[in-house]
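Demo today. Your pick:
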Amino acid sequence: MINYTINYIVYTAGHRHHHAGTQTQLIPSAPGVSNPGEHFPVFAFPTLPYMGTNLPFAFMSVVGNADNNHLYTTPGNKDVQTGNVDIKITIVYAPAGGGDGHGGPGVWVDAFNVDIGDFSDSDFMQVYTNGSLDSAQSLEANNDGIVSSASAEDMRAYNMVDGVPFLEWEKVNGPTLTNVDYQLAKGEGGIVFAFYQTPPSSRPPVPSYVGNNEGWIYVSPGVMVDGGGLVIGPDGVPHPVDPWGPLVAQLMSTVVILSVAVNMAKREKEQVIGLAANHLDSLKKAVSKMEL
C-alpha cells in the first residue's frame, strides 16, 4: 500500500515566508492509502474561504505520481495515479498580494520546485531596468520576494535552480509564460511564481514480444469497472489491482468537499454540494457494476 497526503494551504505572505511553520492550513490534511496502479481524483476548488474572503486557486503540485511529478495551474478535478512511492499533494491558494512594502505598486515573487513539491530558498531571478541589471531590486526579489513596479521591469528567472531547470512563470489569476523573461508592467500587482521541474523521461521502448498492431499494456475487464483484476505493463509482469482502493479514495475526496462547503456562501455551497452528489452517484454506479 502507498500513503498519500492532500494539503490545502494558503500562501500567507509575499516576503518568501513560505516555510511550513508559516503556511496556514485551510482544511485538515487528508491522508489516505492506495495500491500501485490505482487512480483517484483530487479536487482543486476555484476559491476557498479564508479570513472573511474567498482566496483564489494558485496552483496544485503532485509529487510521486506514477508517470511524473505534476503541476496544475488551473483548478478542477485532477487524476492522480499511484506508483511505487508515497504521494504528496499540495494545493495552494493565494491572497490578492502585491505592493512594494512601502505603499507603492509591486508584485510578490517566489520560486517553487515541482520535483520536491515545495518552495525553494535559493536565489532564482534578476531584475533588469531599462536593459541594465538592477542589483538592489534583484536582492530584494530574492531575499524578500518583492519587485517594485514603480517603473516597468524585466524579471529574468534563472535557467536552473537547485539543479532543476526552469519550467514557467505563472501569475495568480493571470498568464502563464514559458520564457524566462517576465515583462513587469508599470503599476502591476499580484503574485507571480517561478516554477522549476525536471522534464519527464522518455517513454520506455516497446518490448520485442509485442506486435506492431497490439497494445503493449493489458488491462483486465474487471479493472475497467473498479471490480479488481490485473494489469500487465511493458515488463510483461501481471500486477493485481485492488477493487476497493479507487472507490475509497473517491469517497474521501467527497467528504473533504462537503466539509469545505459548510463555510461557503449559498450559491457556492450549492455548486459544491452538486459536485459531491456527482461523486456519490459515480460511486453508486461503480459499486452496482461490481455486484453484477
User: Anything to note?
Assistant: Residues 2-196 form one domain. Residues 266-291 form the longest helix (26 residues).
